[in-house]
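Researcher: Re-running this chain for the archive, since the previous output was lost when a drive failed. Same request as before.
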Amino acid sequence: MPSISVRYQTRSPPRSPPTSPSARWKFCNQTRRKTATAGTSRSQPGAVPASMATSNVERMNRTLKEATVKRYHYDSHDQLRDHLAAFLDAYNFTRRLKTLRGLTPYEATCRAWAKDPSRFRYDPTYLTSGLNT
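Model: Regenerated structure tokens:
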């Protein structure tokens, strides 16, 4: 029977950040690149890359800002909060989105809950704002 030898490699200790400005910039960019892709792999079905998730969040933030702060003047934070709540209710309950196959975000959430309730902590129909809140 042939003998099988296995090579063991020892890991080198982590590098300390360099001192020169150009080398420090390069080190920081390498570190950012590693952390941005650390949470995803191709083997995970449905995994969303970190950069894509960030772009979705940034797009939603821009939508909210364009619909509220850039169009209206608010005398107080309470006015902004009220208008933002009204906008989010309209967005979540009435706006149909192509990415959700013509469903509103609320309808898509309710369908996902009906298919697999174990994915949720609470029934999403109990967490809606309305007459009973």
